[in-house]
Amino acid sequence: MTTFWTIWISVITLGLIIGCFFLLRWALANKTGVPEGESMGHAFDGIEEINNQLPRWWTILFYITIVWGFIYLALYPGLGAYQGLLGWKSSNQGVLSLEESAQARADAKEEGLLVEYDRELDKAADVYDPIFEEYAKVPVEELVNDPEAVKIGQRLFLQNCAQCHGSDARGANVGFPNLTDDDWLYGGSGAKIKETLMLGRRPIMPAWIDAMGEQGIKETVAYVLSLSGREQEPEMTALIDAGKARFMVCAACHGMDGKGNQMLGAPNLTDNVWLYGSTEQSVTDTLTYGRNGVMPSFKKTLGDDKIHVVATYVYSLSH
């Protein structure tokens, strides 16, 4: 914060507190000329105004609040760039990455600063880390039978995964997998789900327009659509046959039968589960331009033990 704004905030804040003090002193002073306890000469509806001082207890409390205001402003940040005598902060401001956040936490501890957000994290870790450690000792396939663990995993999922996969885990939009079915690009076992969360995924479907040309794309699309058992018009037979020959280059990832390869994250093309859409145009776009999805790693965000519980919840959705 600039010097100008620090001065601006300080003058207004301190000025208001000092103003309250003088206002109180003015209210306590008897400037009416009427002795205390005597009538002010005003009466309405049988009620007469008497010249009485403010209640003593109220006055004392007002003084206490003024003194406390100065003490608070001296101890805690509140006057622009002034950080306070205690070195207290609500959080580490200005961090843009997990690495910067971790470094800021370490620096704050080394300098003896009181960062409230860091203290809350430490307090939560003391309480909850032992619980997650115990959950992590149980295999996902067994932990799924613990309703409390699944509920905790669901809450972590809603906080970290629902933005892409939706609150119901069915995929928030095109390109985000539905986690409630039994169709998995990399495998649906507890270990594979946990691996995906730990390491992230970066599948790449290359663009084939340069290698195949528009006619080749059209032929391959016709064959790919036929793999999922769709009825095709008789005039499409020639296109499908030509596409089958071209599919040889696709078989390196998707397999000769088009059933995919979970080692590579290549999808099964023989079912009716389509990540980017099942229309002819969608499949044409996929072959023409390629696809580059990204599933980020949550290892640094959640840690091993919490990921184990999230994996348990995701596993429960399709098992």
TrEMBL record:
<comment type="function">
    <text>C-type cytochrome. Part of the cbb3-type cytochrome c oxidase complex.</text>
</comment>
<dbReference type="InterPro" id="IPR008168">
    <property type="entry name" value="Cyt_C_IC"/>
</dbReference>
<keyword id="KW-1133">Transmembrane helix</keyword>
<keyword id="KW-0679">Respiratory chain</keyword>
<keyword id="KW-0812">Transmembrane</keyword>
<dbReference type="Pfam" id="PF13442">
    <property type="entry name" value="Cytochrome_CBB3"/>
</dbReference>
<feature type="binding site" description="covalent">
    <location>
        <position position="161"/>
    </location>
    <ligand>
        <name>heme c 1</name>
    </ligand>
</feature>
<keyword id="KW-0997">Cell inner membrane</keyword>
<dbReference type="InterPro" id="IPR009056">
    <property type="entry name" value="Cyt_c-like_dom"/>
</dbReference>
<protein>
    <recommendedName>
        <fullName>Cbb3-type cytochrome c oxidase subunit</fullName>
    </recommendedName>
</protein>
<keyword id="KW-0249">Electron transport</keyword>
<dbReference type="GO" id="GO:0006119">
    <property type="term" value="P:oxidative phosphorylation"/>
</dbReference>
<feature type="binding site" description="axial binding residue">
    <location>
        <position position="295"/>
    </location>
    <ligand>
        <name>heme c 1</name>
    </ligand>
</feature>
<comment type="similarity">
    <text>Belongs to the CcoP / FixP family.</text>
</comment>
<feature type="binding site" description="covalent">
    <location>
        <position position="164"/>
    </location>
    <ligand>
        <name>heme c 1</name>
    </ligand>
</feature>
<keyword id="KW-0479">Metal-binding</keyword>
<comment type="subunit">
    <text>Component of the cbb3-type cytochrome c oxidase.</text>
</comment>
<comment type="pathway">
    <text>Energy metabolism; oxidative phosphorylation.</text>
</comment>
<feature type="binding site" description="covalent">
    <location>
        <position position="250"/>
    </location>
    <ligand>
        <name>heme c 2</name>
    </ligand>
</feature>
<dbReference type="GO" id="GO:0016491">
    <property type="term" value="F:oxidoreductase activity"/>
</dbReference>
<keyword id="KW-0406">Ion transport</keyword>
<keyword id="KW-1003">Cell membrane</keyword>
<dbReference type="InterPro" id="IPR032858">
    <property type="entry name" value="CcoP_N"/>
</dbReference>
<dbReference type="GO" id="GO:0009055">
    <property type="term" value="F:electron transfer activity"/>
</dbReference>
<keyword id="KW-0349">Heme</keyword>
<dbReference type="InterPro" id="IPR036909">
    <property type="entry name" value="Cyt_c-like_dom_sf"/>
</dbReference>
<dbReference type="GO" id="GO:0005506">
    <property type="term" value="F:iron ion binding"/>
</dbReference>
<keyword id="KW-0472">Membrane</keyword>
<dbReference type="GO" id="GO:0005886">
    <property type="term" value="C:plasma membrane"/>
</dbReference>
<keyword id="KW-0408">Iron</keyword>
<dbReference type="Pfam" id="PF14715">
    <property type="entry name" value="FixP_N"/>
</dbReference>
<dbReference type="InterPro" id="IPR050597">
    <property type="entry name" value="Cytochrome_c_Oxidase_Subunit"/>
</dbReference>
<keyword id="KW-0560">Oxidoreductase</keyword>
<keyword id="KW-0375">Hydrogen ion transport</keyword>
<feature type="domain" description="Cytochrome c">
    <location>
        <begin position="238"/>
        <end position="318"/>
    </location>
</feature>
<feature type="transmembrane region" description="Helical">
    <location>
        <begin position="60"/>
        <end position="79"/>
    </location>
</feature>
<feature type="domain" description="Cytochrome c">
    <location>
        <begin position="148"/>
        <end position="228"/>
    </location>
</feature>
<dbReference type="InterPro" id="IPR038414">
    <property type="entry name" value="CcoP_N_sf"/>
</dbReference>
<feature type="binding site" description="axial binding residue">
    <location>
        <position position="205"/>
    </location>
    <ligand>
        <name>heme c 2</name>
    </ligand>
</feature>
<feature type="binding site" description="axial binding residue">
    <location>
        <position position="165"/>
    </location>
    <ligand>
        <name>heme c 1</name>
    </ligand>
</feature>
<keyword id="KW-0813">Transport</keyword>
<dbReference type="InterPro" id="IPR004678">
    <property type="entry name" value="Cyt_c_oxidase_cbb3_su3"/>
</dbReference>
